[in-house]
């Protein structure tokens, strides 16, 4: 049975800054998967074979969530947080992890300074700053951030649409994690 919990998956980043676009590329793949499922394409379709770690059971729940390309939204992100019980943010981060590493960070950990790395640095305002403003002004839904370790320091500007192979490969490892997260939320 599917719960009535409302979930939004939000990809953040800049496609013109290489690895920083990982959040956008991830939600593009999730949107394509959702579109195929809603169009009646069976999970046995070759499209889904790119995701061998994917639980076919978890794909069902993708149809129950909202997916948003938030780009480099800055303070506009405040309106993207409203009306949902949970927000899953996917973005690049720079910390001390290996290139392409995936970290799951609870929103309250980012707000309390426990989160790692630098999130959404190509944006006007960082994710922790937006979450802090939202908490004070409008309240916050449950927030979970999936950060992918990027190669360059986020403040370095190198215009390219190419991602490093490690970050690109992380997308296919990240998708099953996100789908498993929404499956757990929607079956509780």
UniProtKB/TrEMBL annotation:
Stretches assigned to coiled coil: none
Single GO MF annotation: enzyme activator activity
GO biological process: protein processing
Pfam family, one: HycI
Top-level division of the source organism's lineage: Archaea
SUPFAM superfamilies: HybD-like (SSF53163)
NCBIfam families assigned to the protein according to its UniProt record, in alphabetical order: hydrog_prot
Protein name from the UniProt record: Hydrogenase maturation protease
Biological source species: Methanimicrococcus hongohii
